[in-house]
Each structure stands twice: as C-alpha cells, then as structure tokens.
Amino acid sequence: MTLDEKIGMVRGVGQFSSRCVGNISPPSRSFVVSGTNITIPPLCFNDGPAGIRLGGSNVTGFPPAINVAATFNRSMMYARGVAIGEEFRGKGIHVYLGPAVDIMRNPKAGRGWEGFGPDPYLGGEGAYQTIMGVQSVGVSACTKHLGPYNQEHWRYGLNVNVDDRTFRELYWWPFMKSVEANVSALMCAYNQVNGTSSCHNAALIGEDGYLRSEGFQGYVVSDWGATHDSAADNANAGLDMEQPGDYILIGGGVYAGLEAAVDDGEVTEARLNEMVTRILTPWLRLGQDQGFPEINFNAQDPDGTDALNLNVNVRTDAHTALVRQIGSASAVLLKNNRTTTTGTTIRGLPLSKSIKTIAVVGQDAQQLNLDCGGGLNECNDGTMIIGWGSGSNNVEFTVPPIDAITDFVQDFATVSSDITSNDLTGGPAVAEGKDLAIVFANAMSGELGFYNIVDGNEGDRNDLDLWWKGGSLIEDVAAVCNNTVVVIHSVGPVPMSSWNNHPNITAIIYAGAPGEQTGPALIDVLWGAVNPSGRLPFSIDDDEASYGTSIVYGIDPFPVIDYTEGLFLDYRYMDSQDITPVYEFGYGLSYTTFSYSSLSVEASASSASFSFVLTNTGSVDGAEIPQLYLGFPSSAGEPDKVLRGFDNIFLASGEKQTVTVTVSQKEMSIWDVVSQAWVVPSGTFNVYIGASIKDIRLTGTFTI
Which Pfam families does UniProt cross-reference here (predicted)? Predict the structure, then answer.
C-alpha cells in the first residue's frame, strides 16, 4: 500500500460522510494475495450492542445486555450473539460495536443497562459468549468502552482515578474475557483514566499496557470523537483507528495530521504498518474477504426511505422467538403470594383462566413512541423495552403488554385499561372490583450523547425513583384491588419497600428491559407457559447510599472521580457494611422449589471443582440458577463473597441432577501489584453455593 492508502485504512471518513455509523477509505485498487484477488471494502462499523441501529427497517429489537445477564444462561448469551451477528452480516456490517461491558458502578448510571451489571464475573461471561456468538457468523465484535467509563455527566473529559488492583479485578475483567474470546477490536472511552485520555493512554492500550500484555491481537478504535492532542500522541500510545475521522465538537480529527507525522518521523512507518495489519487481520481471519454482503443501508437516513437504504429484511422467525425466550427467561419473580382453590390459582401467579375481569393500568403498558429521537429512542411515554442513545436499537416491531394481554385473554376474560398516563385517579377507578389488576411502571436512562435529555435526565438518572409517579400509582391500585400484580420495566434498581409488602400485591415481576417481544414474553410468565428463572444481576435497595458510590453531577467541568470504594460494589459493598437490600443480587423466585445437597470439593492451586446434587422438589418443571460464591483467605483483602460460577439447570418435577462448577486458577487469584501477576493466595477458601448471595444452601472450604 501507498502511504495515502494506509492512512485511509486507519481514519474514518467523517461523521456525516459515512454510510454506516463509521466507515474507512480503503484502497481503490485490488491486491493479489497468495494467488487470490483481494478487494478491501469500506469497512462498516455500526451500533449497537443490542442490535442494529440506523440500519433501515426490518431488523430485530433484541433485549440489552442487562436482561441477558438476568438469565444467567450462557447458551442464551451465545444464541443472542449469533442472531445479532446474522443480522449485522445481512446488512453488510463488518463490525458490531459491542458488547458493552462497562461495570454498573452506580445504579443510576445512564448506560448501565448496555452492560451486564455490577459484577465482573457475570459481565465477563456475558462478554465472552456474546463475542463467540457474533464472530461465529463472520462478523467482528468490538468490546467497549475501555476506560473505566461509568457515568454520563462530564463523560467527555472527567478523570477517573483507579488503583491497579481494582482496575484489574473489577473493570478490566470483562475486557480480559473478551481477549480470551479473540475479540477483533476494542473501543477506548471518552474520559481520562489516571490523568490521561483513554485513547492515548499507553498504560491501557500501549505495547506494555493492560491490553497488549493480555495477548490482544486485534485493533483499538476510538469512540466517536474521543481523540485529543496530536496524531503522534495517539498513534504512538496504541490507537490503531480513529472514528469518525473528523472533528465533531467534543474532539476527533487528530489523524488528519497522521500523514505529516509519518513524514516528519514522529510516527514510524513500521507503527503505521502495524496499525493497518491489526485492522486487516480480523477481516481476513473471519473470512470477510470472500462472499461478505455489500453494505445495503444508509445510517444517515434513520427513516429508511433513502435510495441507499435497501431495507433488506434480516429478521427471522427464529430471532423473534429468541427475543421472546430471553424476555421471559430474564423476568425476575420477586414476590408471589399464591392462593388456590381446588388447584386453581385465584390470587398470585401463574394466572388461571378462571379470572374473568382484568384491569391493565399504567402508561408503561401501552405502545411506545415509534417516531422518537431519530434512531436514539429518546422518549419514555410508553412501554420501556430499552434505554436511549447509541446503545438503543430499532423498536418498530414492539409488541406492548396491552396488546399481548388483550389478545391472549379474548376468549375467557374482559380487559379494562387506563394506560395513556399514570393517572392516580383513573387507574385505581379502573382497577376497583376487578378479579385482577396488572399495574405497570418504569424507569429509564440512556446516553448523554450531544446532551440528549429525557424528562430532565441527562443520561444518568436523577434518582432511583420510578418515573411518572409509578410508585404512587402502584400503591393506589393496590388499595382498591386485592389481587394486584406489579410489573416493573427498568434499566436498574428502583425503590420498592413502600409497596412491595402490601397485602393486596400478590406478585411482583421485575421485567427489566426485555426487547421488542415484551408483551408476549410477559404473557408466557404470567399464565405459566414459562416457569420464571430470571435472577437479579444487581441488588435492589431504596437508598443510593446502600451502593457506596454516587454519580458526580455539579457544574464544574471534568471532575476528578476517585474510585475509593475499590473492589466493593453492589452486593460486595452491602455485605461489607451489613446492609440487607430489599432484594439481593442473584435473587429470583420460581413456580417450583429446589433443594441442594451432597457438596463435594476437589481443589488444587491450579483449579477447583465443586459438585452437588440439585433436586426439583416441587410440582412444576423449571430451571434453577445455582450460584457459586468464593470467600478468599482473610489475608487476601477481598470482599466476603465474590461470584465465581453459575449454571442454568432445567429439571422436571421430582428430577435430580449432579451439578459440577469449576473455578479456574485465575478465578481463584488476586492481582498482586508488586509482582504484576495473578497470584493464588495461600490459606483457607470458603465456598458458598446457593440461590442468591443471601440464600446460601451449601458451604465448604479448601486450603491452598
């Protein structure tokens, strides 16, 4: 390649010149490599982590990662990755800008729902399975955002101060698992880390930094406009590609000076060759040089009416069914006070067809705004299936709860509703005297972007509360209907203690952000076609102080945020402070019951395995999510319990199975800052196996 051709490979074509969210300018000529004619396309980068955004019509609105995490099901994580990859490939997209693996440091974090929650192990498993799925169909994955990047306020320049051990064990862990999955690319974040911008932070992305020392062989691409200072600063620090390639107010455009930097010797041609090689390697490795579809959409046309938007249909029945399956598998049953008469449910779940009059209350039950925010979903005036911003997706095929409920019960019950707003008068009036009231409430957040503000929330939530007086609506409906079922759609924890123990509230489902098949997925759980097996991927408490962190708002630009909490986030912090949340990490009920017995432990310094017998002791077939927490030797300075294993085991009523969970050497290790290595600490480890962090059924020990 000529110098100009190499520059075209490492620099985007511009924010408003890209047919995709990002493109490059490849050489206009072909090359013969080992007798094969190779033509490099204008590599297409596109959002987002939960499915195609700005890709024209006929795409699927998948659930975001936070709901996939709630399934605690690796097979579903992988299957979702495959399905997303198939749709990206069908649109001619070479690079899937996902998964997002940013740790939910604070429950109000605007983009917390794009990732897998506050636990690094769960996030790592989600990242690994997603990447393996996406790349199995020949689409590159790009894990993001290498920072840490954990809030929207001041994201374009705030400085995170984080110590080496905390970074390695907590924020780095999902990126480490991404490297293990041979991820093609990683995206650096907007903010600074320990005083240096992420995209020219050699400690993160340089030859001797975290990323390369872990064995990463792909390329580092900037977040859109996340580059600053000179071309040499960024290239020599380890940035392989700049997107979108021009200056976009918040930054960017520095690689406009890259050719001059090479000419002047500030960047060696060997380094430029390395950048291009890293970009081409995954393109060739995944077979994108042979038979890959051409780009067939135009991201500059969110309505899909442009001549360049061919609106190729990449939806399939299998993808729709998978979204519905994940939606039901991620629904967390928080409460169920079931009352039966001669085997028929009259209160609580699962519902029976003996119920004849149903009230549906709350605007979260109605169809969402299908024409909102130019592909950013910047509204919350209907059912909440995903947050807003670049991590959102196409919502055009959303099936809202009201439609699904009305359709399902049409042969045996009548439905009355008050869903156009959270009317504290109209809602209770509709619910009074009904056999069943289903009340919906939600909370939403998203990306700040170019200062996208939804109902006064600048990306990060202003508080933990349900929107539109949702808590008051729940209380008022429960006051007049003695069989009230609450459904919460939310991006994260919301306060519940003011109403969750109300005697008339017979069941609570935390449905999270379930994607486009929200209504049908909910029907499956409510009427028992699916036995709920979702588990909370975070703790739920009313008080933000229970989480030990806060969002930095304020008016001073680009604050310094010291991560003084170290390794203690969410349940780790709560355990250390003897805080009992309203609902704990890993919690979730079932329509059946399970027993745990006969724990055996085999351990050495290189690995440990734990076997036990799991039995479905109830009358309903269902899946249990056994979770393994490890307690390190006291000298290690770790939290009391950390998640180090889980499984998803389906058992018929009365069936039993021996389950084995294996913990690797690295998963038994701590990061030693002196030796700069993973070290298994000496001493006695405690083993906790159970149904949640607070519901431990079996305990054991081993000594190293």
Answer: Fn3-like, Glyco_hydro_3, Glyco_hydro_3_C
